[in-house]
Design the sequence.
């Protein structure tokens, strides 16, 4: 078979390379300069929101018919990766906008999409509310209850660890509609922040991603119209898990971007830093460490782009279920992000441990990627089940 550069699987097509360079420029010029301050002051990255909203990179996945760009999953992960390369907190703007709308895009009615998605395309944010205090990895054990009242639904309960929770306008909320039906008794809804009975609670104080507010949400007789249900009653748990099959690669992309950012800082540093009369880069130990970092990053990138492309096709090429590679790419990329950021700190030595360099922030930001959107243990469990199915 002759090599065809147009179908070279291992070289992104031109349009994706152009997309990368466009978002990289915005990230470097408008987001990177504020990343340390955002982290230091635990403040929302307003500059990043403005930059992403004004360039249309806030939610590239929204279909064109709803005012978005209709970009595919591969484009979405490239955007997230490039923002994460300079600021992990800011990368959660496009990542969580996708997470908070994916269930609606996959399973919602045209009317509900038309109500919500143009807002997100225009710059409002969306969050995904699955987790509760007593229902984390065991998401099906949730207690938040939705009861039908005439044409409306009335929701009572609370959610926690909701990324960007205090800044969103729309929330995909999973709640129990039939307590006797197990995971088949859970339904998904779109809740608006102005809905009566909805309230944002306390924010978490975290190790990393400090610019992204992680909030509790309270539903106190929160009344929403009946047409806000996503899909059919009782399908909410499947919609929630199907969403994660599409969005775990986006968390992988966040991890990958953080790792890439730390790697580049380390490469720059070891060429400048001199010890024993030569640049630290001249030592074979340094070169071996850089080589290991690079191998891990490149492998993670291939997995994530493959998982994103699978999501686009709706199936994996070899007939495997989507979730296998989605969970695998997220777990692998987040594990290597942790390793790579720790290596970067080590290469920078004492300076790496200070806040004068970004690698300690990157290490703290990387840690959450092993935990959220399914701990890496849950991701491995999802994979194990599918491998053996
Ligand atoms: N897509 C669609 N449906 C799915 C699915 C998927 N990826 N995975 C499972 N389902 C279906 C199952 O087929 C089952 O339906 P049936 O009863 O009709 O067969 C139903 O959903 C329940 O699945 P399962 O029995 O596997 O549920 P469990 O409670 O045993 O486990 C896990 C589900 C652990 C995989 C799930 O709770 C999970 O992913 N937990 C982590 C949650 C998470 O990622 N939280 C982070 C939130 S974002 S920060």
Sequence:
């Amino acid at each position: 078979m002759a090599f065809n550069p147009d179908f070279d699987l291992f070289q992104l097509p031109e349009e994706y390379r152009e997309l990368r360079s466009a978002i990289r420029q915005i990230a470097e010029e408008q987001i990177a300069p504020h990343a340390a301050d955002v982290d230091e002051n635990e403040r929302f990255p307003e500059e990043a929101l403005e930059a992403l909203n004004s360039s249309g990179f806030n939610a590239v996945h929204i279909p064109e018919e709803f005012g978005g760009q209709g970009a595919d999953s591969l484009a979405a992960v490239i955007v997230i990766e490039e923002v994460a390369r300079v600021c992990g907190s800011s990368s959660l703007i496009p990542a969580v906008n996708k997470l908070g709308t994916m269930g609606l895009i996959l399973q919602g009615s045209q009317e509900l999409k038309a109500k919500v998605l143009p807002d997100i395309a225009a710059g409002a944010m969306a969050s995904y509310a699955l987790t509760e205090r007593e229902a984390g990895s065991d998401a099906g054990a949730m207690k938040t209850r939705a009861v039908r009242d005439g044409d409306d639904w009335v929701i009572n309960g609370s959610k926690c660890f909701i990324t960007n929770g205090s800044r969103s306008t729309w929330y995909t909320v999973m709640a129990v509609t039939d307590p006797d039906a197990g995971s088949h008794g859970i339904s998904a809804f779109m809740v608006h922040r102005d809905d009566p009975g909805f309230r944002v609670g306390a924010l978490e104080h975290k190790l990393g991603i400090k610019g992204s507010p992680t909030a509790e949400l309270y539903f106190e007789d929160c009344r929403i119209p009946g047409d806000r249900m996503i899909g059919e009653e009782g399908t909410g748990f499947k919609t929630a898990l199907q969403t994660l099959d599409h969005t775990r690669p986006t968390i992988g992309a966040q991890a990958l971007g953080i790792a890439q950012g730390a790697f580049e800082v380390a490469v720059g540093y070891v060429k400048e830093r001199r010890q024993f009369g030569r640049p630290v880069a001249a030592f074979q130990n340094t070169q071996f460490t850089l080589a290991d970092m690079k191998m891990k990053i490149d492998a993670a990138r291939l997995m994530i782009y493959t998982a994103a492309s699978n999501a686009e096709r709706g199936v994996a090429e070899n007939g495997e279920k989507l979730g296998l590679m989605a969970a695998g790419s997220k777990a692998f990329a987040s594990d290597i992000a942790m390793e790579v950021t720790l290596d970067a700190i080590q290469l920078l030595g004492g300076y790496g441990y200070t806040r004068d360099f970004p690698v300690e922030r990157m290490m703290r930001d990387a840690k959450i990627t092993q935990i959220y959107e399914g701990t890496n243990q849950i991701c491995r469990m999802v994979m194990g089940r599918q491998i053996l199915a």
Q: What stands out?
A: The longest strand covers residues 152-163. Strands lie at 126-129, 145-149, 152-163, 170-176, 186-192, 198-203, 214-225, 229-230, 274-275, 278-279. The chain has three domains: 2-121, 126-235, 237-388.
